[in-house]
Structure formats: structure tokens, C-alpha cells
Amino acid sequence: MALSGCATAGAGAGGTPAATLQADAAVARALLPVQTPRAELLQPWTGPYEGVPPWDRVTPAKLKEALLEGIELRRAEYLAIANNPEPPTFANTLVATQMAGQPLQRASALYGVMTSNIGSAEYQQVDREVSPVLSAAGDEITFNERLFQRVKAVADNARAAGLTAEQTRLAERSRDSFIRNGAALDAAGKAELGRINTALSNAFTSFGQKVVADENAWTVIPTEAGVAGLPASNKAAAAAAARARNVQGWAIVNTRSSVDPFLSFGDDRAMREQVWRKFVNRGDNGDGNDTNATIAEIVRLRAERARLLGFANHAEWRMQDTMAKTPAAAMSLMERVWAPAKARVAEEVADMRAIAGHDIEPWDYLYYAEKVRKQKYDLDQNELKPYFELNNVKRGAFYMAGRLYGFDFKPLPRGTVPGFHPDVEVFEVTNKSDGSHVGLFYSDDFSRAGKRSGAWATTYRSYSTYDGVKNVLSSNNNNFTKAEGGEPILISLDDAETLFHEFGHALHSLSAAYTYPALGGTPRDYVEYPSQVHEHWVLSRPILDGYMKHVETGQPMPQSLVDKIEAASTFNQGYATVSYLSSALVDMDLHTQATPPTDIDAFERDSLARYGMPREIVMRHRLPQFNHLFTSDAYSAGYYSYLWSEVMDADTWAYFEESGDVFNPDIAARYKAIILAEGNTTDRGEAYRRFRGRDPEVAALLKVRGFPTS
């Protein structure tokens, strides 16, 4: 099913006749004022593949100029829609709003990358200056009473007007979003909400930049004894990091991809503690990069906004447009998993103490877990790394996409299209069935000063058909340590699964088959599901045989080693679950408080104590560095989403496994058509039932994690 190539001649992806789409687009285009952008970075993208971002022409000054002018151009377009004397229709209101602001959208795609992936001081300054202006400009649209009334009229009369199901959903979701974001407030309420949103925008930027600054640090290890136990690849990377920073010895950079291997294999206990403390105290050192006051301001502002909008707390407001719907529903799932996870931690700690002969501290956990893994399962993680060479792992992910969904990824020669950094690789994506073009995939794999930590996916241009077919420009971003001298880059099994996870987000975008781009975004507790499920294919036999080959021998991973991995698949799940879930529980606790806390460190300690957090483990993301929560509203009161999505993910993987073929073509085709391609054109819970034939079962998740299912 080549759903991503192009719409059929007779209808748009959502079933609207092509003639209707063309007529609606013509109405909308005629309504919007003809404007010629002055700024270079607002111009339509040119070049091959339907136009590509002009990364080679971006500078901080040009970007700021483009963003500010783009806001003005969009303002004129929205005013034309709002002040149109003609009665509101789907074409002159909803289609017009889809079409408005395209120059600003192009500049914003550049803005997101330059601030996240490059992050120089100059781009950070642009971010500080422009982010509150963008926030206020967005509020201006939401608070436009005439515009809101037009959107509301179209939504309220959708059925009488004979709109299609997809058009009706777009209109109703647009109306509801306006209301949820303050469009129904009186003038005083809108003014107050605008003040809050601008203050939050400033605080989000401040938080993110402080965390990046604390991550642009390292721990120097001056002697060979300090890196004893490290795998050769990690040791070489630490030496390269030291040379790059003009220090003697080895440097453990203050990001997870460098810290976790050191905590897992470094024999020097005192040095492990030093590296651990530096990492877990990011943003919490009482200096200029301390984020505690910023967090207190954010949670106070969020509470004010929730009350203004008629909600008891921030969590209730944020969860209106989610699958869980309420904090209580999310908490119910988390609590069901929390108790068995804590019980498993007690078992894991007992096993480690038996080997260590002393109490286990948080900087000991990963180290002694590896000793237990070796003892119980004869499995050494270092035995796995030679099979996971970065380029081969990527090729394995491409194979998965081809086998499941019929996509082909072809690397473009350097210079074919611009990149924002020399490290970036670009691939053309086509449909295997007919060679038709789908889009481009940008891959930025390596850490650098200024780049935010972690791994994430972005989309520079989303698919749509309402005004002609638009291809997809998607990207993945990782923070692997670059090797020197052409040495192979070996990553862990966990890193390989993370790469497949982010690639799942890209596949979600590349599979799109909807008409209107506003229906591309899915609920926060659904969006991680299509990414998480793809992690399971890393160890599938065809991918292991074809791509996960030993870097020296060229032989695929033997089944005996795979059997050990599978036997140990639920090993250390107490640690993994408690580390993640404690962050999700504290997030929900923080955002359901009647009175927002002012002492963030004390709140974190007290919240963990209430949940009975094991002393041997620290939250995966402590509040002072929790970018998910405090660089935007996106995951706030929503970090539970990974667990909610994992219920569907585990249930889906069980579906493939039970079929006897984890690449089952019928299931894969239905998964692509229903789960990936539809975006948010239908209710996602109902979509899952269409795909699976029933609601997802939590038992599958508990089984995957090795916990009791009853």
C-alpha cells in the first residue's frame, strides 16, 4: 500500500474529491493578501525534491530578520481571514488558516534546528529575543474574537454544511483548541493569559539554555587507572573528547551517552561517584546555571493559567486532548506498574550486594548490574557492542522500513542538498513498489557543543494534499560520540534501540496520508507508540543476519548470543522501570498540586519519599534538568505518555509475534494504513481497535517487563 507517494487522481487522502480540494484552495488563496517576503529565509524553498531548507544560507541575523518579518506577514493573512465580510465557510476559514503563515513556518523549521542542533551563543541570543515575540504573536491569533467566531461557526454547522468526516474533525478540533487556549475568555482574561504565556516562553528558553550550559562540561580522568574497565571504544572516545577540549587524560562528557557506559564499566568507584554526581546535578549547583528558581516560576505560571482557563491544575488542562483524558487515568496505570517495579528493584539490589559485599549506591547500580548479568546469564554487554556499528544499525533500520512498509532509503551524495552541519547525512525516501518519491530523511548522529542532549525527531515539512501533494522532510537527531581516524563507531544495544525508536517517529511522518497538515499531530500519549514499537525489530533475525555483523569478523550475531539476550530480556527491568516511572510520577505530582511548590529540590525529595523511591536509584530525569517538562509545555503532566504508549506497543508486538512472522505483511500493511498513515484524522483509541480488533491489554506490557500479570 503506497500510501505516502501521492494522492489518487480522484480524491485527496481523506476522501475529499480532488476538484473540491482545488476549489477550496483557490478560495483560500484568493482571500489571502498577496505579499512578497523581503527576508531571504522566508522565500519558498528551492532546489530538488520539491525544495529543501537553505541551511547553507542561515545566519543568526538573517534568521531573526526572517522570524520577525514572518510574524508580520502571518498577521496580515489572519486579519484577512478574520475580517472577511463573506459568511464563514470551510474554504474561506479553515483551509485559509491552513494556508496562512507558510513563510513563517519555513523560517521556524530553520529556527528549531539552529537552536537545538547548533546552539551557538549567537543562536541562543536569537532564541531569547524571538521566543517571547512568537508566543505573543500566537496568542494574538487565538485571542482574535472574529477569527474564533468564524472557526466556531464552521465547526458548529459542519454536518449541516455536508463536510466530510475529515473536514469536520479539522473544524471541531480547531474550535476546541481555540477554546482550550483562551479564545472564550473576556478581554481582561485574554490580557492576563497573554502575559502568562509570554513569561512562560521566556522561562522555557532560560531553562533550556542553562541545562545545555551544564551539559557542556566534562569530568577529567588524569590517569589510566581511572578508566580501567571501560571498553576500548569508550576509552578511545573519552581520549578523543579530552584532546578536543585541550585537557590531558580522558574526558567523560556530561551527557548520558558518555556517562552511562562509564557508570556501567568503570572500575574506579570514587571516579564513578564523581561522574555520577556531576551528571545528576545538572541545573542544581546553585550557580548561574541553576534552574530551580526557573522551575518554580514555570509551575507557578502554569497553575495561574490553569485556574484562569477553568481547570483545577495544569495537569487537568494539559490532558484534555490526550487518550488518558484525566490525571487519575494516567496515575492508575503508573501505580499498577510501580509496585511490581519496586519489588523487582529489591531483588536486583540483593543480587548486587551479594557480589559487591557492600551497600549499593546509585553510582554502583549499573556497574554491579553488569556483574550480575554476567553471573546469571553469562552475558557481557561488551560482547554485544562489536555487532552494533552505527552505520550498520542505520542500514538495519532502513531494511526494517522497507520490509514492513515498502520504503527505500538511498543516500544522497554530499552536496546534493545543503546540510546544517558537515556531519549530517541525507537520504531520499522512495516507494519500492513504483519508485515514487516520498521525501527526504536527514540524519544528525553526533554530539557537539551547543547541541541539546538526548535523541529526538523533527519534521521540516509535513505531508498534505489540500493544496497539491507536499512531500515529507523528516530528521533524526542523536548524540553519539564521534570516533577519530575513521574508526568504527560502536554503540550499545540500548543505543541501537534508541536509534530505531527515533526512526519510528520518522516512519510515522513518512507514512502520512492525510489531507490537512493540522491533522498530522497525534495525542501526546499516542505519539510515542509508533516509535516505541519499532525498537523490537532490532534483534529480529533478518536484521541481525543482514546488518548486525561483528565489526572484525563480519559474522552475524550467533543465535546463542541472541538467546542469552532474550533470556536476560527482563533483567534489570526494576531499575529501568523505576528510573523512568519515578520521573513520570513526580511530573504528575508536581502538576496536580493545589499550591505550586517554591522549593523544587525539597518537593522532589518529598514526592519521591511519598512514592517510596528506592534509595539506590535516581530519577532518569531529575527536575533541575528535565527538558521534557520545562523547555515547553509539550510533555508537562505528560511524561507518563511513554508508559501509556508502551501498553499499545507491547500489545502490537505480541500481535506480530503471535502471527509467527514479525514481518507479517498483512499486519504491517494494516499498521501502516491505520496507525501511521491516518495522523489524527480519526480518534486514536478507535483506530487501535480497528487495527487490533480490541483495546490494548496491559498484560502484554507487564509480560515484556517481566512483572506479574495479575
UniProtKB/TrEMBL annotation:
CDD domains: M3A_DCP. The keyword Ligase does not apply. Residues 267-704 form the Peptidase M3A/M3B catalytic domain. It comes from the Bacteria. Pfam families: Peptidase_M3 (PF01432). Signal peptide: none annotated. Keywords: Hydrolase, Metal-binding, Metalloprotease, Protease, Zinc. Binds 1 zinc ion. Its cofactor is Zn(2+). PANTHER family: DIPEPTIDYL CARBOXYPEPTIDASE (PTHR43660). Belongs to the peptidase M3 family. This is M3 family metallopeptidase.
